[in-house]
Structures are given as C-alpha cells and as structure tokens.
Specification:
Layout: E1 3-9, E2 14-21, E3 27-36, E4 43-48, E5 53-58, H1 67-80, E6 88-93, E7 104-105, H2 108-115, H3 125-138, E8 144-148, H4 158-161, H5 167-171, H6 181-194, E9 202-208, E10 212-218, E11 221-225, H7 246-256, H8 260-269, H9 272-277, H10 283-288, H11 292-316, E12 321-325, H12 326-331, H13 333-342, H14 352-356, E13 370-373, H15 378-391
Parallel strand pairs: 1-6, 6-8, 9-12, 12-13
Antiparallel strand pairs: 1-2, 2-3, 3-4, 4-5, 7-8, 9-10, 10-11
Helix pairs in contact: 1-3, 2-3, 6-15, 11-13
The structure holds adenosine-5'-diphosphate.
The site of adenosine-5'-diphosphate has 13 residues, from helix 10 and helix 12.
Length: 404
C-alpha cells in the first residue's frame, strides 16, 4: 500500500505519523511515533494503530543532535526495518507568511521563501524547515509538501488582517495571520458530517491546548482569529500570556533592562497559566491543585475565553455553535462548563451530564447555541493536503496563490 509520512518538527523533537492510501483515496493511520530528546538523550518510539509498541530505542546524543537527523532516524527505521517507502512527506510548517494560503510542494525556491519567514516565528519555523532542507538535499525526488498553520486564515478580510500601523509594515508582512489553522480546517471539514445543521452557519471553534486560540467560522471558512502576527496573542496559554498591552513589553525593556531575547523567552515560556499560578502550565495539574492561585489561573483562562468568544461573536454577528477541541477542550469538563456559563448571554445552555460524559453534543436540546466536543486531527489534515498536492499532476504549484 502506498503511504504518506507526516512530520511535525519542533526544537527538540519530531513527531511523525504514517498514513496508508486506500484505493478510494481515503487515508488510514498506520503508525504514530516521535523522536524526542534530540541532542541530549534521543529516543525513537512508535506505536501501531492498535497501540502496540513497534519500537522503543535510544541513541547517543551526538548521533541525533538536530531535528533533521531525528527525522532521518525515523525515516531510516521505517525504510530499513518496516520496508515503508512513503510516496510523499507532508510537513507542518507554522508560517506561510503573506504568500501561501494553501499547502505547497516544496522546491528550492519555495524553501528559500519560507526561510525568510523565520523572523516571523523564530521558535518554530527554523525547526519546521530544517528536515525539509535536509531531505531536499539527500532525496531531491521525494515530494515534500508544506502545510501551514496560517494558511486557513489567509482569506480574512482586510479589516481582520491589519493592525493600525503604517502600511509599509503591512506590506513587509506585519499582519494578523492567526494560527492553529490545520486544526480549524480539520474541524471545518468534519462539521458537515457531524453537525450538518450548523456547518454552514456561524461557528466559534475553541482550540484549547498548551497553545490556545479561537477561530470564527462562517460557512466553514475562517473569518477571524484570536491570534495575530505571532502565536502570542489572544487567549492565555500554558506559558504564553495571550492578549497583553504592548506597553508591558516597553516596560520590561525600559525598566527591567530586558533584551529582545529575554523578552521573547519571558513571553513564550514564563507567562500564561504557569506565570499566573506560579504552579504549573498544565491544566490537569491546576485542576488537581487546592492552591487558590491554581483556581485563579483557571478562572482567568475561562474569563478570557468568554471575552474572546464575545469578540468573535461580534465578528460573526451571532453564534450558532461552539466547538471545543485540543487537550483542554476535549478533556476538561470543568473548563468547558465554565466557558459555557460565560456564553449563557449568547443563548448557550449546557447539558451537564453530556458534558461530564465528554459526549459529542454537550448542549441541551433547547440551547440557542449548539455546543460540541470534537477531537482535532491536524496530522490527518496534513496527510490529506499532501495527497491532494502530489495527486495534482497537472500543476503541482497550483495552490501557491498570492493572498488578496
Ligand atoms: P499541545 O498539542 O499544544 O501540546 P494539547 O492539545 O495536547 O497541547 O493540550 C495540552 C493541555 O491539555 C495541557 O494543559 C493538559 O493539561 C490539558 N489536558 C489534557 N488532558 C486533560 C484533562 N483530562 N483534563 C484537563 N486538562 C487536560
């Protein structure tokens, strides 16, 4: 069976999945794995679709000292031991910049353009691109497809795409991009089957994980996001503050003498639930804690989610459904219930038992806003995009469109 390899490379680990291409063009997940501890104590671990462990192996730190070598290690294991030879590799790439509003097959020209966006996402983009460059050098004929977290939002209207700053900065790429687009696109693709009554209406999707954002969908398309130029804006997250007056950054620089690198580290790693609670960035730990600071951090998260939902409701001029997804959204009945409470003014009414049971529909039949819990699947979205790009033999670059 032909297969597609999906790769999601971060700073110290690479997650990967293998999908089989079934005769009718649908995809079945065969393997999930990751190489973590890159540069320190590298470890390859992978499981089959039934959860059976296929490999668990450690390596010397210097043998796997960057994410390109980490993916090469996983690739060699798939090739040499499982005889899996993917027909294409789909990569998660956080930033498609202003230019890409869909997945794109990567060649040298595309890669150089994507490398220019490193400054827009310095903590993610270089690691996303490193394995692509390495594979391009070693296996130039292997089709590689970049799938962007920003792409799904590139159809936003001008009002949602801009900051109130001089236009030359917009022209060079300082825009409200929005992220988690692969997750939202997956949810939008699942809604017509799961919730045909609302799929074409006004839907707010809350992707609540370590990173968290919300997206307003109209007719299955993104019209507004709580995130902007970087993945720092909007909701508070595990270690990021979410919406914060830029004056706070000026204060940190002028009064605390922090360098750009200090500020970056502070905003990405020391704030959010972790900074606020002083306990943990992990929602499970906060829920389990009896410390009032943990309860305050959860209340803050919920309060801000309510505010952001109000903003998106204004963008949509009403709401027909809210979908909860990602780690917190899929698993925390407490957070969902508290956010649903904040949406009561919009007409939302929670079915407490359905919520406690993590049912797919968690609103009461008479609720003015339907409430759903849907697991996201960004990897499947990447596999689908990859298959469609490499199947488009007529014009493999056809979806490299300029944003309006
Ligand atoms: P990411 O993919 O961005 O790392 P996830 O979508 O996996 O994040 O979400 C991670 C978050 O989900 C963590 O804060 C974790 O505590 C939270 N989470 C996972 N399971 C539960 C649960 N059962 N109850 C509450 N929070 C949970």
């Amino acid at each position: 069976m032909d297969t597609i390899l999906v790769a999601n490379a971060g700073s110290s680990s690479v997650k990967f999945q293998v999908f089989g291409i079934v005769g009718d063009g649908s995809l079945t997940r065969q393997i999930r794995g990751q190489v973590d501890g890159v540069g320190s104590r590298p470890r390859l671990r992978a499981v089959a679709s039934d959860g059976a462990v296929l490999v668990e192996r450690t390596y010397e730190g210097e043998l796997v000292d960057d994410v390109a070598k980490a993916l090469a290690t996983a690739g060699a294991w798939l090739r040499d031991e499982l005889k899996i030879h993917p027909v294409a590799i789909g990569h998660r790439v956080v930033h498609g910049g202003p230019d890409y509003c869909g997945p794109i097959r990567v060649n040298e020209v595309v890669l150089q353009r994507l490398e220019r966006y490193v400054s827009l996402a310095p903590l993610h983009q270089p690691y996303n691109l490193k394995p692509i460059r390495s594979i391009l050098a070693r296996f130039p004929d292997m089709p590689q497809v970049a799938c962007f977290d920003t792409a799904f939002h590139r159809g936003h209207g001008a009002l949602a795409d801009c900051y109130a700053i001089p236009e030359d900065l917009y022209a060079e790429g300082v825009r409200r991009y929005g992220f988690h687009g692969l997750s939202y696109e997956y949810i939008a693709s699942a809604l017509p089957r799961i919730a045909p009554g609302v799929a074409s209406k006004r839907v707010i999707v809350a992707h609540l994980g370590s990173g968290a954002s919300m997206c307003a969908l109209r007719n299955g398309l993104s019209v507004e996001s709580t995130m902007g130029f970087t993945a720092l804006d909007g909701l508070p997250m595990g270690t990021r503050p979410g919406q914060t007056d830029p004056g706070v950054v000026l204060y940190l620089v002028s009064e605390k003498g922090m360098s750009p690198a200090d500020v970056q580290n502070f905003l990405y790693r020391e704030c959010g639930l972790k900074g606020l609670s002083g306990i943990s960035n992990d929602m499970r730990e906060l829920e389990a804690s009896a410390d009032p600071r943990a309860a305050f951090a959860i209340d803050y998260f919920v309060y801000r989610a309510g505010l952001m939902a109000g903003m998106l409701a204004a963008a949509l001029q009403g709401v027909d459904a809210v979908v909860f997804t990602a780690g917190v959204g899929e698993n925390s009945a407490r957070v969902r219930a508290a956010i649903a409470d904040k949406l009561a003014w919009l007409g939302a009414s929670l079915d407490v038992n359905a919520n406690a049971a993590h049912s797919q529909v968690i609103s009461r039949p008479d609720s003015g806003v339907a409430l759903y819990v849907l697991p996201t699947d960004e990897e499947l979205m990447i596999a689908r995009h990859t298959l469609s790009v490499v199947s488009d033999k007529t014009n493999p670059q056809s979806n490299a469109r300029r944003a309006p």
